[in-house]
Amino acid sequence: MAQKAFEVASLAKLSLATTKRHNALMPNIASILKAEISRVARKEVRAEIETLKKASVVHRSSIADLRRQVSALEKELRRVAKGAVRPSAAPGSGGDAGEVMKRRFSASRLAAHRAKLGLSAAIYGQLVGVSGQTIYHWEQGKARPRAVQLQGLAAVRGLGAREIAERLTAQ
User: Which domain range does residue 127 map to?
Assistant: First the structure.
């Protein structure tokens, strides 16, 4: 009987040692499994985020392209609308409307012509029928002459130095 008691006691010790070892391994296995699941999940999320980032870059690029296209189209629309308004703005001038549309204006050519004649902006403005300040603005590109003023500029450009001097003395 003592033998049996000894066997039971040693079996109990062995069972207790095995249980302690088993309990000690279980948390390690659980924590290892949890860490592995977390690592795999992060890897999967990272892969998904990379594809989303790439798609986002592509979308932002296409949005920027579309904005540039819209801007260009709006600019074109303003230019076309501006061109369409001009002929209808001068219906009273009759046949001169076609001639007015053919006239072009260049700020540098205006400044060169005035310098060639040796006239001040105020005097050149008197010949055209505008102020000297307006001539400065036209030369600097801050403003553009209207159709009627373009006709006056064309008339002055057609005059020679003597004719200009006669007009100035007449005024």
Answer: 101-170
pTM over 0.70: no
121/164 same-domain check: yes
Q: Both 128 and 83 in a single domain? A: no
Residues 53 and 125 in one domain: no
DSSP 142: S
Q: What is the pLDDT of residues 56-99, one digit of tens each?
A: 999 999 999 999 999 999 999 988 888 765 544 444 444 444 44
Q: Position 19: which residue type?
A: T
CA-to-CA distance for 150 and 105, rounded, in angstroms? Answer: 7
**Position 24 in a domain:** yes
Task: Reduce the secondary structure of 71-133 to three states and give it as a string.
Answer: HHHHHHHHHHHHHHHHHHHCHHHCCHHHHHHHCCCCHHHHHHHHHHHCCCHHHHHHHHCCCHH
Q: What is the rounded CA–CA span in Å between residue 23 and residue 29?
A: 10
Sign of CA pseudo-dihedral 48, 49, 50, 51? positive
DSSP letter string, 14-34: HHHHHHHHHHHHHHHHHHHHH
